[in-house]
Write a structure and sequence with these properties.
Elements lengths: L1 H9 L8 H19 L5 H16 L6 E5 L15 E5 L5 E2 L8 E2 H14 L12
Antiparallel strand pairs: 1-2, 3-4
Length: about 130
Amino acid sequence: MLALLLNQADQVVADHYTAESVTALQVEVSAAQSVNNNTGASQGEVDAAAQKLREALEGLKIKITASLDPSAPNGLNGWYTAPVTVTLSAYGNVQYSLDGGSSWSSWKRLKRERQKEKARKPANCCKRISRK
C-alpha cells in the first residue's frame, strides 16, 4: 500500500495545488520513502507512514485563480462603471456551493450545462435583419 501511495504522490502536479498543501505532501513523501527504503521497518511503521501519506494526499487543496474583466476599475476612486466578469480557474474535480454547504455541485457539470445552453440559443450573428 505504501508503494502505491508513493506512486500516487509522484503523479501529483504541484502547480495545480496550493503551496502549503504541496509542502505538507512533500514532508510526508520524504518520511514515507525513508520507511519504504528501510528493510527493517515494522508493519506498524509502514502502516503509520501510509496513513500519514494518504492524509496528505487527501489534504491537497486545489489552487483556484480568479481574474476580472475589466482587470482594473475603469471609473473614479476605484469604482467599476461597467459590468464585471469574474472568471475562476482550477484543475481537477472542483465543487461549489451556493447555499453555505448544504448542497454541492460539480464545476465540470456547470460548464457542460452552460455549453449546452449556448448551443441551443441561436447566434445573434445569424438573425435576419430587415431594412426598410
